[in-house]
C-alpha cells in the first residue's frame, strides 16, 4: 500500500484570538524550517531530508477514516475531506472548533467495502445526505439510550455494527482511499452532521500511521509512543457485546441513534 501525507501550515489562521492551544516551540521550529526549505514537516521533524512522501505501508487492512467526498464542517463552511489542510478549524461534535494538525491519505492495496448510511438514518437530518464510512470507523452515539447505558458522553460504535438498523448497509461501491484526520487529541468531527472519530494519538493507533512517518509523529505527539490509551481516548469505547446491545435496543425501539446536535457557537473553541 502506498501512502501520501498532506502536511501544510497556514499562518493566516489566527489561533490566539480564538483561544486555541498554542503551538509548542518544537512545533514552531519545525514549521519554520519546513516553510523555509519547502520540505515536508515529518522530514524536518525526523531530521531526514530525503524522507519520501510515498512509501510502502505495512498496515494494508486499515478500515477507519473517511472516504473521498465526505463533507466535513469547518469554520469556513463545509469542505470535502480531500480538500482539508492542516490548520483548518473543524467543528467537533461538542460544537467547538479545533485545529486539524495532519491529514493522512492512505491508499489501500485493494478496494474495500464501506458502510452506506442513508440520509436521516441516524436521526432527523442526520446525515443531511447519504454518506459512506469505512466499516470500522467509529460514530459517536449520543442518544438517550446510549447515555443511560454509558453515561452522559454516550459511546463510540463502529459503522459496520449499525447495519442492523434501517437505511444502513454495506455499500456496493468499494473505496480504495481513506483519509485519517489527526488533531491534538481524540475528538469527533461532523461528517454531514454525523460525529465521526478522529485519529487518537495513542500507542494502539501508531500502526495506522505510515511507517516512514512514525518517528516524526511520535516526537510531535508523545502519546503515540505511550501505552496509555485511556489518557489519549477520552470518549467511551465499550466492548463489542455492549455496542451490539446498544444497536439492538435502538432497532427494537425505533429511536434515533443521535441526540440533539449542539447549536453552533460563533468561534467557540475548546
TrEMBL record:
Record field: compositional bias (Basic residues): 240-251
Domain of life: Bacteria
One Pfam short name: Hint_2
Region (Disordered): 240-270
The Hedgehog/Intein (Hint) domain, residue ranges: 65-202
Residue ranges that the Swiss-Prot or TrEMBL entry lists as coiled coil: none
Transmembrane segments: none
Record's protein name: Hedgehog/Intein (Hint) domain-containing protein
Organism encoding this protein: Roseovarius bejariae
Lineage, highest ranks first: Bacteria, Pseudomonadati, Pseudomonadota, Alphaproteobacteria, Rhodobacterales
